[in-house]
Amino acid sequence: MLHLRVPSQETQRVLLLLKAESALPEGARVRVDPSDSNLRLIPFIEDASTVTATQYPVVDIPTEPPVARNYRDHLFDFLPTSVVESTEWPTRHEFVGDLILIKLDENQRTHGGSIGEALLRQHARTRAVFEDRGVTGTFRVRDLKPLAVREGHDDSTRTRIVEAGHQLWTDPATVYYSSRLSHEREGTLACAKNLRQELGRPLAICDPYAGVGPSLRPLIAESDLVGELFAGDLNPAAVKLLRENIPHTSATIECVDARNLKNRPEMREKYDLLLVNIPHDSLQHLPDLLPLLQSNGIVRGWAIVEDTDFEASIHYLHSMFDQTATLEIRRSYSASANLCRFEARKTP
Question: Full-prediction pTM beyond 0.70?
Answer without folding.
Answer: yes
